[in-house]
Prior knowledge:
single chain; about 375 residues; mainly alpha; Na+/H+ antiporter like fold; about 0% strand; globular
Amino acid sequence: MNISLAVxxxxxxxxxxxxxARYVKLPSVTGNLLAxxxxxxxxxxxxxxxxxxxxxxxNELALGVIALSIxxxxxxxxxxxxxxxxxxxxLVEALLTLIVVFGSLYLFGLPFRYxxxxxxxxxxxxxxxxxxxxxxxxxKGDFAKVLLSVVALxxxxxxTLFGIIISFMEVGLAAAEAANTPAIVMASRDIGISxxxxxxxxxxxVITSHKAKSDTxxxxxxxxxxxxxxxxxxxxxxxxxxxxxxxxxVYINFSRxxxxxxxxxxxxxxxxxxxxxxxxxxxxxxxxxPSVGLIGLVYIGARFFAKLVGSRVGTTLTHFxxxxxxxxxxxxxxxxxxxxxxxxxxxxxxxxxxxxxxPVVLTAxxxxxLIGPILVRKALCDVDSV
Length: 386
């Protein structure tokens, strides 16, 4: 199958799935994912694994745009009154998720390093599904801003902690010894490079928003900058999402025209999200579900419990309305691209055996991406304005 035909199938299948999902009162995200599963290798096989690998640039562009959009939500002026409370929720929820998932899997008998990596990966939340739900659900007050802030902090923390822990785990290996570099220095270097790249991209976007005469030119520059940022991050082995989120935060806080890039991206974000979510569904290998057994069930149950309880405990430290406290946890349940990306990186390391991390994470993604958007939309519809 050629690429044009595959992209056409993905577009139409994703659109049809989203339409059918809305018809039966489900989020379109769920329909996109189910359509992807249907046309992917697990069911009809209309889109093969080989073709999906060739579509990696589209996936990376989508992740970059999503991360940039999340960073652009971190406007200091808007978040000043919410940032303190959002940080409280994040700290309790993220740390409890890490502890509960790690502790559950370790007590279940998993080796320490595996349980710890699963605990770190469990913190990550799927921004694409949440953004898509926010766009099609009327929201009240600042709940959506708080939600996206916690999502951004979750993913930043997961990516940063993952890099540090992987570096420490590799200390005794030949690569680290050859480099003769302490693990903390290696991790700090990667994170520092990612931040510098994100700041550079953000400055470029600020200049572009000032100089460009039309939103069309801004769009071209923004998409090019996102691809270069993600591409350089991948080439250097640094966290691409961290760089893109940083770029969005720099842009939104230092641009005199902060809405220009957001306005220009609005024209392409919907189709980009549709392709991203449908591709995410197509990549899900349903054959791994029976093989993960109790490990997958423990991971899913522990993460779901920790997200709900951690968010509820965290919100007790805030002045949020009762409806926010009741709903924030279930809005943080989706998990997809960031978790899969971290699992791929982990399995590329010699400290982990092949096919030991990805099947568990993929199984969790299947569950959380199907029920998560439903919970997100219910949460968004149930909150009160402030």
